[in-house]
Amino acid sequence: MDRNGIVEHFICVRDGLTVFAAEYPAAGPQTGRDPLLPVICLPGLSRNSRDFHRFAQAISTDQAKPRRVIAIDYRGRGRSDWDPDPCRYQLSVEAGDVLEICSTLDIDAALFVGTSRGGLILHLLPGMAPDLSRGNILNDIGPVIEIDGLLAIARYLNNEGRYPSWRAAATALKMLHGPAFPALEAADWDEMALSLYRQADGVILPDFDPALVAPLLELSAATPLADLWPLFERLRDRPLMVIRGETSTLLSQETVDAMAGRHPALQSLTVAGQGHAPLLHLPGVIAPIKAFLSTLD
Predict the structure, then answer these.
(1) Mean pLDDT estimate for the chain
(2) Is residue 153 situated within a structural domain?
(3) How many domains in the chain?
């Protein structure tokens, strides 16, 4: 356990790679006869467990219902091994890693939060482990992905730089993403830099395997994307919340409306002043999430 009370797990998965998961134990005694369902956090394409640090703290120390929280680094990100075969950087493999982590940590039922790519993994899990997810939160992702937003992600990930200081990294993030995130303050950009980058040999650099970006560079505006609506149908029988950034270019309001039409109990939240993908621990976001989670035990 580190000085912040986080339990660090390094788990060897089926093909020999080691993947990392950060566990935030529930603070205080659990109420009721059975423990509350844990929350498992799945990050975006190039992001990692640190993206959920403030969120996990808020959920694990909630005064009313503190929950165990697990935040995962997929292979090739954060503190997990880079895969020597980049072809294995795909959703089905990463979903399999999530299942192995859950098995190792004795989790047979949980609530899930999936940001961007993490939400796509949540579309796969019901077909792989039907009883595992008891409720899902999709953070700025849905069964229709806007190609313009995906191409924008490819461009900025391909042009990720190296910075001489953490301040320079935070400044670069604000220059790139600031127009889509007017709600963020200076401290938020500093925290984002700490979650997205690592320091090596005195340089601040992206904390992911650059091979992750290669498939995105093959996309164009004419590239047909997969039809994910059949997978979304598998989410209809369990509680679902979708969060959309007000300025998101990846998830449209039209898609959210269509999701609500197919999942009548869907809860949706549009986050003002944020784009792709909203920070979940900020005021106006964390409270509705807590309220949603509180109904799922």
Answers:
(1) 95
(2) no
(3) 1
